[in-house]
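Consider the following assembly input.
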Amino acid sequence: MRFGSKTSMTESSAIREANGGPGHGAANGLKVGRNGWVKNQKHHHKKPSSYAEEKVHHSACNGGLYSRPFYESFEETPMLVAVLTYMGYGILTIFGYLRDFMRQWKIEKCHIAREREEQKDFVPLYQDFENFYTRNLYMRIRDNWNRPICSVPGDKMDLVERVSYDYNWTFGYTGRVVKDVINMGSYNYLGFAENTGSCAEAAAEVTVKYGVGVSSTRQEMGNLDRHEEMEKLVARFLGVESAMAFGMGFATNSMNIPALTGKGCLILSDELNHASLVLGARLSGSTIRVFKHNNMQSLEKLLRDAIVHGQPRTHRPWKKILILVEGIYSMEGSIIRLPEVIALKKKYKAYLYLDEAHSIGALGPSGRGVVEYFGLDPTDVDIMMGTFTKSFGAAGGYIGGKKELIDYLRSHSHSAVYATSMSPPVVEQIITSMKCIMGEDGTTIGRERVQQLAENTVYFRRRLREIGFIIYGNNDSPVVPLMLYLPAKIGAFGREMLKRNIGVVVVGFPATPIIESRARFCVSASHTKEMLDQALNAISEVGDLLQVKYSRHRILPALDRPFDETTYEECED
Amino acid sequence: MTSAGPCDPELKMAAGQQWVLVEMVQAFYEAPAYHLILEGILILWIIRLLFSKTYKLQERSDLTEKEKEELIEEWQPEPLVPPVSKDHPSQNYDVVTGPPSHKIIVNGKECINFGSFNFLGLLDNERVKQKALASLRKYGVGTCGPRGFYGTFDVHLELEERLAKFMRTEEAIIYSYGFATIASAIPAYSKRGDIVFVDEASCFSIQKGLQASRSFIKYFKHNDMEDLERLLKEQELEDQKNPRKARVTRRFIVVEGLYMNTADICPLPELVKLKYKYKVRIFLEESMSFGVLGEHGRGVTEHFGVNIDDIDLISANMENAVASIGGFCCGRSFVIDHQRLSGQGYCFSASLPPMLASAAIEALNIMEEDPEIFTVLREKCKHVHKTLQGIPGLKVVGEAFAPALHLQLENSTGSRESDVRTLRSIIDYCLDRQIALTQARYLDKEERFLPPPSIRVVATVEQTEEEIEKAASCIREAALTILK
């Protein structure tokens, strides 16, 4: 199954050349990059034939900007696997058509909800084509998503057992509960999804006092003192002048970007940005240009061209340029090359919008996100955005920055004017968990958790590599994508893992490029070493069963690793 | 088409293939005359193009590196945000200390709340609180994930089932943010090229949904069915011209049950008639009418006795009458289920905290157990509406049964700004006398049709007759003192 051919030889020698920094050798053949990161261009699936040849090696000479090693790897897809994956989709499509044909002729029972008789002659509500994928591919493995849980989404969780007697068209509940499933799927980075402890206590107290709703907007009758206190705390936590919080992370992006840019402005957006950023950019009415994922050459080129050529047709200069990036990319596990982005932004006088949905709390020695991780100054980022859903175990999002920015948002944010303000218990959860991370609760719990997460991340990622999986992303990112490629393996992996009492997230098209289906683990500070080992053993077992140990650059446990304080001492295997 | 042209140099290159040449010569002889002439002309044309310079190359404007650097050096962006003046009316929020319930402390003064949409008084209901608390003890606060990835809790499923049952529809879907509900639902169905007919007075979240859908949007005059029919007829004519396009162009009417901005009701029966006449689907936004109108609080459909299946999609938030957080859409499974994969705010956002879902379930329990509550609310609404009549200088906008009315200035003072300031002084006057009111806030530049400035007066079941009388007389006094 594995490929040890010539391609990989030339590949790794190319890496060594590109990778100018000393002491970060690609001895084990890993595609690492400090100065320039190396990655095959992954988004060319329109031309499958040229897939293998299309590799672009970028090397920027910005090593000096980084205060710490920056290791990110995206091992290229083995050719054979790529071919098999396309074949897999081909077979699924053929069978899909066949079954659609049989459904049409009533040979096979059709479970799809139908338009009511009275409206049969209306224009169809959605395209049949859109549903081809849902009906014939997604439906087969639908049991891997939306699994209902009935406990805290902590390190372990209880799942409501579901059964389907009609091939996933409908689900029934057996009434049984699958107990103590190890949770590798929730974004519970710092383990604040808890129903006991100081956060839950504080939230409970507030629930009794305030109730759960607000029934008004911030600008009308819904500006509680607790909201203001939380915002001051957030600003202090981030190290910015001022901050404002919103009731939903998604809406924080989609409803505030339009307040910041408009017609005549340019938005430069990473190609893998979250849907909320894309929606916000679209709603703003600005021109949007997309640069290659985390590729600074691509970004610089767009910046230069934009300033030199101005707006299309009129050639008027752009009013302003806003760069949209995320701290950690949730599907790739990559960390933004922030030092370079900031250097570019300063050079070209653009503004920077940093979405720290996954990185706040999860990166940096004291959990202050990607800015702290790289040892940068938060005032260099114009708009610091993040969510409370993940590391803080609450809900909602925030924007932090200069006082003028936040004052402007207070009067012009769609959210502040039209949306109901945040629920008091949720606010209390944020205040308590944030104070805990900052150590203001008088304990060291927060700091320990941040450290534990970093250790767990490095350990878990390294072990997966050693086992021989293709793991995407940065070595320090708690989001760990494990490549599965073949569509059939998506369902199989999810099910086999659940059989072993481990809950994982599997994702395929359209959330990923069509051939890059993957499983994704989210490491949490609340995972103990035993849990991680149990999970790793199960993953390894399933990996053998499904033949997904694709890596041709398996790292050897014996090699000394370029990690310092967070490396585990124990001997593995 | 003969593939081997007589003078194809490429073929000559293929040495050793004599027969090809022979065939070519043969083809040359056999080809019809017009063919040869045509090819001859084409060859001449190519030669002409190659050698003539009849057109001037456009002056190339390739900039040198130095010029580029200069341009980059010179470019000055606008500031990220324009400065906001300190006394901008929305710069200084009123601060609520403690719970925002019937008795509310605004800017340090204890008042009776006439400003929050807590219509049924469920915000500080003990049962709701206890249910939320029990849920908190079981699940914690956050869900740490979207619905797809272990963010679906059993209470979410229960709430969806209960909402569907309450509304008597096949299915319901919940969102974690009220604003995002209709704003996500519209673009899930209506795409580029589709047509949406929408009331001018529609609230902001509808406008954002429409914008995100990138569809073709046609505004009709507020509640004017003739105007709507005119637009529908226009479209019908258009369709007859281009029936192929018409077959794939989806058509929607988007209306609100009770309008947030005007506090009046949509003429639903007429809309349903138009729906079948012109084959347009109806999306109904019921944030202000869900849990308010109808004998059992099911909203406008129940109010008019319209069959709920005739409405393609109903959306409402759970932040007003239900006094929790989030929103929902309900309708037939055929319609609603589509959102589970295409509703952006559903797929890509963390799910609703389970304790808020539990609170909503308990609120539904209370609404189902005691439908009397809606009659009480209606009485209060009527009372508020009646007592506010005839205040000099102020006019009441809205239906008698609408729980959130608008008080507008009868005569504008000239500019919007000064109107806003005048209304603010009325509010301040009332605040000092323990009546909490608020202005209806809008983004002046973003609204499609900006409503005139107004004071919101919200009726809730908790307000006593005396309190309502007191509020009305307080506003009257304020109007008499301030609007001289």
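The two ends of chain A are 23 Å apart (CA to CA). Ask yourself how this observation constrains the way the partners meet.
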